[in-house]
From TrEMBL:
Signal peptide: none annotated. This is 8505_t:CDS:1. It comes from the Eukaryota. It holds the Pfam family p450. GO terms for molecular function: heme binding; iron ion binding; monooxygenase activity; oxidoreductase activity, acting on paired donors, with incorporation or reduction of molecular oxygen. InterPro entries: Cyt_P450, Cyt_P450_sf.
Length: 211
């Protein structure tokens, strides 16, 4: 008798999520066979010792850079919202690990947006803002029926704005993934971030590969 993995459970079907193809991902996929294949890629990547060491190193680097900015800009005591600071460092780590892009959310927070004049910062900020917009507006699509999001003024604008953000983020990420896959196939040096681990999972290109 076929029995799905005990780690698999049926997800609640949310029609609005189909707009963003969220059912294609690990969290919301109700197809056990597809879910299992994705899990076999993600689980070893997240549990890799090289990846975990890379994360620890990245966190330490972020803290050190943030501390240096404080030493340069703060002459006395300063109060700030720790929850916002934590969100910034989490966003930076997530973007860097998945896309290899440098992210400046924490730097902007520490310097009160003083570095925003840089074109490179503006480009990355556009990406992170689109991602944050999608994550912020996602509850509307969970709680409200599709009819409201499609036709009710105000909510319709939210839907259109969110769909644009998702399309922009998907486009950037897809280009990054395709470019990095090509580089790895051509012999580029393996890096221990999540993107490289996912692209090389269960292949000889991964340093932790075992036959």
């Amino acid at each position: 008798i076929y029995k799905p993995s005990p780690k698999f459970f049926s997800r609640i079907h949310i029609p609005s999520f189909e707009r963003f193809e969220l059912f294609q991902g690990l969290l919301f996929d109700n197809d056990y066979n597809k879910w299992q294949r994705k899990r076999k890629l993600l689980t070893p990547s997240l549990s890799s010792s090289k990846f975990l060491r890379k994360i620890i190193s990245s966190v330490q680097k972020q803290f050190k850079e943030s501390e240096n900015r404080w030493n340069l800009t703060i002459n006395d005591e300063k109060e700030f919202d720790v929850s916002l600071w934590a969100k910034c460092i989490t966003m930076d780590l997530s973007i860097t690990q998945v896309t290899k892009l440098s992210s400046y959310n924490l730097a902007l927070f520490d310097t009160n947006n003083e570095i925003i004049k840089s074109e490179e910062v503006k480009k990355i900020l556009k990406f992170s803002d689109a991602l944050k917009n999608f994550l912020t507006m996602l509850p509307y699509f969970v709680l409200l029926p599709a009819f409201v999001m499609d036709y009710v003024p105000g909510f319709r604008s939210i839907r259109i704005s969110t769909e644009r953000s998702v399309k922009f983020v998907y486009g950037i990420v897809l280009n990054i993934v395709e470019k990095r896959r090509k580089e790895l196939n051509e012999g580029a040096e393996f890096e221990s971030d999540l993107l490289d681990h996912m692209l090389t999972a269960h292949t000889p290109m991964n340093p932790e590969y075992k036959e």
